[in-house]
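Notebook, bench 3.
Goal today: get a predicted structure for Acetoin utilization protein AcuC from Ammoniphilus oxalaticus so we can plan the truncation constructs. The sequence was checked against the plasmid map this morning, with no discrepancies at the termini. Length recorded as 384 residues. Pasting the sequence as submitted so the record is complete.
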Amino acid sequence: MRPACYFVHSEAYKQYKFNDEHPFNQKRLDLTLDLMQKYELIKPNQFVEPRYATTEELELIHDPNYIEAVKKCGESEKLPIIAASYGLGTEDTPAFPGMHEATSLIVGGTLRAAELVMSGECDHAVNLAGGLHHGFRGRASGFCVYNDCSVVIAYLRKHYDAKVLYIDTDAHHGDGVQWAFYDDPHVLTVSFHETGKYLFPGTGKIFERGDGQGFGYSINVPFEPFTEDESWLDVYEQVLSEAARGFKPDVIVTQNGCDSHFLDPLTHLSCSMEIYRQIPKLAHRLAHELCDGRLIATGGGGYDIWRVVPRAWTLLWAELSDQGFSDNPAIPSEWIDRWQADSPVQLPPFMFEAEDVLPDIPRRPEITSKNKLYIEKALLHAPK
C-alpha cells in the first residue's frame, strides 16, 4: 500500500546556512523531524531524497545572469563587485560557500515533491526546507536566494499544464511568488500575512489583485498587528474556501511559514499553535474536494526554532499523513530531554498552549472588525 504522504528530506539541507547569528536557522529541521519521530508519526518508507534543480529548471523563473552571480558568490571568499546589485552579500541575505548548490537542492526537493504528487505515487508531499517565497527573478531577498515555490509552479505549468492554487500563510507577504505570476490567470496566489505597514516586505495590500489577464488571480489579506486565532481563522476559512472553489485548481502548493505565532521574534501577530492545526486541515480538505488530493507543502519562515517551528510543522505533517491531533498531547519527554540543554528557553510541555499563557490583545474588537472587512474586499474580483 502506497503512503498517502511523502517527506522529502536530506541532511544536506543544513548547508543552506548564512552564519551563526542569522535568524534563518536550519537546526529547526532537526528539531522538527526528531519531534515527528518521537511521536512515531513517520515511517522509513515515507522518506524521499531530494534532487538538484537543473539550471534549465531554475531559469523557468530566474534570470541566467542572476544564477551566474549566485554561483560566483558561493565560489569565492571575496564577494564579487556585482553581488550587491543582485541582493547578495547583504545583511539580509549574506553570501556563503556553495550557496548555488545548497539552494538548488532545496528547489530540487520541492520539484521532487511535485513529481511524486503529479505521477500519482502519493497524494501529498512535504519539503520543509522549501518555502523560499521572497526570491525574485533577478534578486535575492528576505533570506531567500532561489524561489522554490515559484519554480515549482512554473514547472507544473510547463510540464502538466496545471492550474495551480498557491496558498501562503507566512506572516510575511509572499511577494516573490505573487509578482512572478501577477498576469497569469492559471495561477491563483492567496497570501495571508501581517500588514506591510510595519513588516517586511511592505507589500501584499488588499488592492494588489493581478494585472491584465491575471487580474483577480492575486488575493491578499493583510492582517492587523496583534491579530489572534479566532479572527485569523475566520478570515482564512472564508476567503480561501470561496476563492479555491471558484478557481477549481488541478493542484495546490502551500507555503507554511509559522511566524504568526505570538512567540515569533520577528513579527507582531498574536496567534497560538491552534492555527497551525487548522491551516493544513482546510488546505487538505480542499485538495481532496477539488483536485484529487494533489497537494505539495513547503516550509517557510519561523524564527522561534525551539518552541514554535517543531510543533507547527509536526502538526502540518500529522494532518497531511492522516494522523491529525484531536486532543492536546504532551510533548514526548525523550524530545525534551534531548534538546532542553541546548535551548535558551524552556521547551513547551504540550502541543497546544493553555489559555492563561496567551497574550492579552489590545484593541481586540477593533482589530477583529477591521480584519472582517477584508473578507469581502479580498474576494471582490476573485474567480467565481
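Residues 99-118 form the longest helix (20 residues). The mean pLDDT is 97.
Flagging this for group meeting.
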